[in-house]
Amino acid sequence: MNDYRRAKRRRVAETIEIRDVMAEQVVGRIGNLSESGMLALTRLELNDDALYQFRFLLTNRNGERREIEVGAHQLWADAAKDAGQFWCGLRFIDVDADDLRFIRDWVEEPGSQHV
Fold first, then answer.
1. pTM attached to this predicted model
2. Contact 101/95 with Cβ under 8 angstroms?
3. Residue 7 CA, distance from chain mean position
4. Is the distance from CB of 52 to CB of 100 less than 8 angstroms?
5. For residue range 25-63, what is the model confidence (pLDDT) as tens digits?
6. Of 19, 85, 101, 9, whose CA–CA distance to 54 is shortest?
7. How far apart (Å, rounded) are the C-alpha atoms in residues 31 and 115?
8. Per-residue confidence (pLDDT) for residue 62, from 0 to 100
């Protein structure tokens, strides 16, 4: 798992909802994001070691918005402090090359807070 955490991760200040593409429902929000994965706070307990197709909307500092779709593998999950919420670590296994560039640029924006 350490290999996946080498990428710089940007803490998310605003709410970025995560939508499950297959179920067409919002499952939670992003806590932090890197080019290789994300920390998510979910409303639903995701299945251990499962694969998901997620979509989320990123907006860069210039106001450009891009809908990102990723294939993700859940690496771990823990119950959050609030009942009915879960922290999940997800590794991206499939990202379009243009979406990956947008994520990289978004993570590297000046003034971003990193973890």
1. 0.91
2. no
3. 13
4. no
5. 999 999 999 999 999 999 988 998 999 999 999 999 999
6. 19
7. 10
8. 95
